């Protein structure tokens, strides 16, 4: 049994085994559950952004509502930055958007400075809007938990087609999961992070399927 040396076992566990798992997953059809769409065609954030510099369309977005008392949710935003933003900042078309009411620019600048002390803020976006626009925008999510002072501790996951994603049967409650509690590290680590990965895998699988179809059409001369 000289073949099974310690070095070879380590190499197998580090390189060969993960590759086999990946190939099994990537070649199978419907081996994963797609992340449910909870609300279709919500209002794109570009509709309330006066500068029109930010949009949901074509991006995987996490959006949060900062409200009039930004300090009250700052700890949740730091959690979101540490547990989610830093994990996905290298992913394509990924962004986090903070929506806040006009007149809170000074507080937002301080928040950006605090978060940016140890973070590349390139994919953090902040937009201001009126109270009425923020409320209408939020209502398009069709989430029955109201904003408090234009703020919520929940972060919301929006796909590239401007649909709200989440869970139909949330573990522990049995209810739909529209938003992810930023104050809970376990929710961010165990639910939001996993759901973002599932969403990206959806796009990866769709990309592979499109390429396969193109190759098939070439083979038959179409």
From TrEMBL:
It comes from the Bacteria. This is Membrane or secreted protein. The lineage of its organism: Bacteria, Pseudomonadati, Bacteroidota, Flavobacteriia, Flavobacteriales.
């Amino acid at each position: 049994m000289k073949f099974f040396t310690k070095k070879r076992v380590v190499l197998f566990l580090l390189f060969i085994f993960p590759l086999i798992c990946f190939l099994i997953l990537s070649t199978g059809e419907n081996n994963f559950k797609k992340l449910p769409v909870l609300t279709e065609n919500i209002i794109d954030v570009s509709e309330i952004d006066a500068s029109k510099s930010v949009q949901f369309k074509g991006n995987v977005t996490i959006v949060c509502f900062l409200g009039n008392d930004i300090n009250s949710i700052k700890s949740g935003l730091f959690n979101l930055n540490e547990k989610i933003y830093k994990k996905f900042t290298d992913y394509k078309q990924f962004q986090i958007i903070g929506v806040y009411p006009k007149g809170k620019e000074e507080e937002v600048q301080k928040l950006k400075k605090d978060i940016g002390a140890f973070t590349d803020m390139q994919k953090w976006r902040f937009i201001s809007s009126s109270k009425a626009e923020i409320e209408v925008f939020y209502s398009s999510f069709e989430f029955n938990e109201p904003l408090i002072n234009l703020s919520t501790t929940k972060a919301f996951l929006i796909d590239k087609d401007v649909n709200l994603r989440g869970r139909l049967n949330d573990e522990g409650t049995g209810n739909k999961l529209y938003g992810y509690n930023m104050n809970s590290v376990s929710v961010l680590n165990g639910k939001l992070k996993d759901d973002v990965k599932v969403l990206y895998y959806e796009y990866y699988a769709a990309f592979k399927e499109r390429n396969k179809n193109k190759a098939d059409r070439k083979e038959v001369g179409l």
